[in-house]
Amino acid sequence: MTLFLSLPFWALLLITVVIFYLALEVGRAAGARRRDHLDGARDELGSMVGAMLALLGFILAITFGTQLQRFDTGKQLLRSEASAIHQTWLLAEMMPARYRDEARGILRDYVDVRADNRGDLSERIGRSERMQSALWRICLAGVAEMDEHYPRELLLESLNQLISLHEQRVAVSVREHMPVVFWIVLFALAILTFGLAGYQAGMAGSPRNAARPIAVVGFALLVLLIADLDRPGHGGLRFDQYALEYVAKRMDTHATSGGSDR
């Protein structure tokens, strides 16, 4: 199942549509064979199909809501991280010039790495963490030489928050996903529901029409959207990087106007 969910989103949609539609057609064929034997069960079967569709819709709604909330949490963490980066940039002003300039240079590159949605994700995370280690060493050395009247603890607290927010973003967006067993149950329930709906259609002898394939595609699209929310940045849904881009512009503006040379 993990391999299945790692497929490109177009392939995931295609496979999902095929699986759901096959379940519908297999159920229809089975129902057609039993049409003359279970005439009295058709009303009961219709109620069962309605109940299964309602249950599937309920599960999909809960899953979608949970994943959407997680996506919103990721967006909020991005904005908080941008604020922490800028705060650390400003507090670096307290350090002696050689430490300040080196720390700010790394912070400026750090913003670009954090805002970049291209390339290998693991490589970008590794690069971010190497920059954090370098920043920590520079700030520790700079704090040791700061004037006593400066609130040196604020700089280290801000840097610590920057690192913590990075870890939270990685956890929410990369490491924490919907459990595989939940995906299995979701697909099993969908297959059973479409199989039962096809069985009912076969029992009733209903002719094929466009409504059923459209319903299959609709459910498959919703499953795809849930998968996209579960893997933000890999498909069509991506976090808006405006907050980080805005911080980068403020840094560039400050560098152009010139900072203090304490």
Gist?
The chain is mostly helical and 262 residues long. It has helices at 2-5, 9-33, 42-91, 97-115, 121-144, 152-175, 180-204, 211-230, 242-257. Helix content is 79%, strand content 0%.
Structural features, described:
- The protein is mainly α.
- The protein has 9 helices and no strands.
- The protein has helices at 2-5, 9-33, 42-91, 97-115, 121-144, 152-175, 180-204, 211-230, 242-257.
- Helix 2 (9-33) runs parallel beside helix 7 and helix 4 (97-115) packs antiparallel against helix 5 (121-144).
- The longest helix has 50 residues, at 42-91.
- The protein starts with a helix and ends in a 5-residue tail after the last helix.
- The model has no long low-confidence stretch (mean pLDDT 86).
What Rg is obtained from the alpha carbons, in whole angstroms? 27 Å
Globular, elongated, flat, extended or rod-shaped: what is the shape? rod-shaped
Helix content: over 70%
Main β sheet profile:
none
Distance between the termini: 58 Å
Task: Give the topology string: H per helix, E per strand.
Answer: HHHHHHHHH
- The overall strand count is 0
| Mean model confidence by pLDDT | 86
DSSP strand content: under 5%
Low-confidence stretches: none
